[in-house]
């Protein structure tokens, strides 16, 4: 697995880590768990269970063509997962070994349509591969399709999981300006970026070949955040995967449970710890 793929895996693991991911409320009201305002989230039952995740990703790789890793996906769990995507997202860094056993998955919620501003896409269930397939020629598979603040609408026709729909705002993509080759074990690293937005969070995921990962959460509008030196020491000297993304999310009610919807604008890169 190369560093870029490890970055993708690390970012996905960060999103699925218990208590790690959820966007801080932005003062808007909440209705059935839906968010309002500038992409923030306002869950009215923060301890509720989650039975699925739907996401769209606009990704770019530093030094290469933007949009290379763009796509969308969905997974649904056979049993409610208490602890997934709960509460507000605290600023700070955590380190963990990725040893969590994923829950059993189920077929899903029928056809899922996704609209981001004037861009559209569709997810359909592939019974042979047992996964949702993203239609590659959809609008949301084109380069740099998230500008920030667009309306995101996700709707599912329903199947094993009942039909659902949710609306929220797309995140504002950040541009990391720091030199990622200058990280040093034991020394705090100041990460800088531009294009941050109020009421949004930046999630940074770093991972080494031993599947040890670090997740940091920062205030997007600050334009800077510190990765502690002890975190870099834990990851060890050498090349590590790096992903930094702005994320917005909402949670929709499906019976007694919830499904979490995400839009992510991510930058992937290599980083070096000396």
Overview of the molecule:
By secondary structure, the protein is mostly beta strands. 8% of the residues lie in helices and 43% in strands. It has two helices and 15 strands. It has a seven-stranded mixed β-sheet with strand order 2-1-15-14-11-12-3. A five-stranded antiparallel β-sheet has the order 6-5-4-7-8, with no helix packed on it. A three-stranded antiparallel β-sheet has the order 9-10-13.
Proportion of residues in β-strands: 35-45%
* Contiguous uncertain segments of 5+ residues: 1-47, 83-88
Structural class: mainly beta
Give the distance, in angstroms, between the N- and C-terminal Cα atoms. Answer: 21 Å
Alpha plus pi helix count: 2
Record field, number of beta strands: 15
Give the key terms.
mainly beta; 2 helices; disordered N terminus; 274 residues; five-stranded antiparallel beta sheet
List the helices and strands and how they pair.
Elements: H1 3-16, E1 50-61, E2 71-81, E3 92-97, E4 112-116, E5 119-126, E6 131-134, E7 151-156, E8 164-169, E9 175-176, E10 189-194, E11 201-207, E12 212-219, E13 224-227, H2 229-235, E14 238-254, E15 257-273
Parallel strand pairs: 1-15
Antiparallel strand pairs: 1-2, 3-12, 4-5, 4-7, 5-6, 7-8, 9-10, 10-13, 11-12, 11-14, 14-15
Describe the structure concisely:
The chain has 274 residues and is mainly beta. The chain contains 2 helices and 15 strands.
């Amino acid at each position: 697995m190369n560093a870029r793929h490890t970055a993708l895996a690390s970012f996905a693991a960060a999103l699925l880590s218990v208590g790690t991911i959820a966007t801080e409320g932005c003062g808007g009201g909440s209705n059935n768990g839906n968010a309002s305002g500038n992409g923030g989230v306002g869950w009215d039952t923060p301890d509720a269970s989650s039975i699925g995740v739907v996401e769209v990703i606009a990704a770019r790789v530093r030094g290469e063509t933007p949009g290379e890793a763009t796509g969308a996906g969905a997974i649904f769990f056979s049993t409610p997962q208490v602890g997934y995507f709960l509460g507000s997202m605290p600023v700070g860094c955590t380190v963990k070994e990725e040893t969590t056993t994923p829950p059993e998955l189920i077929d899903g919620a029928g056809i899922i349509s996704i609209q981001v501003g004037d861009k559209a896409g569709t997810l359909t269930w592939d019974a042979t591969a047992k996964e949702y397939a993203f239609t590659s020629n959809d609008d949301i598979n084109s380069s740099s399709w998230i500008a920030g603040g667009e309306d995101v609408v996700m709707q599912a026709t329903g199947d094993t999981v009942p039909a659902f729909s949710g609306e929220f705002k797309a995140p504002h993509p950040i541009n990391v300006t720091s030199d990622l080759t200058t990280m040093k074990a034991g020394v705090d690293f100041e990460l800088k970026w531009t294009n941050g937005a109020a009421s949004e969070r930046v999630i940074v995921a770093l991972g080494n070949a031993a599947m040890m990962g670090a997740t940091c959460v920062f205030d997007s509008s600050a334009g800077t955040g510190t990765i502690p030196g002890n975190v870099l020491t834990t990851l060890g000297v050498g090349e590590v995967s790096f992903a930094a993304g702005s994320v917005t999310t909402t949670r929709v009610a499906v019976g007694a449970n919830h499904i979490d919807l995400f839009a992510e604008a991510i930058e992937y890169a290599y980083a070096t710890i000396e």
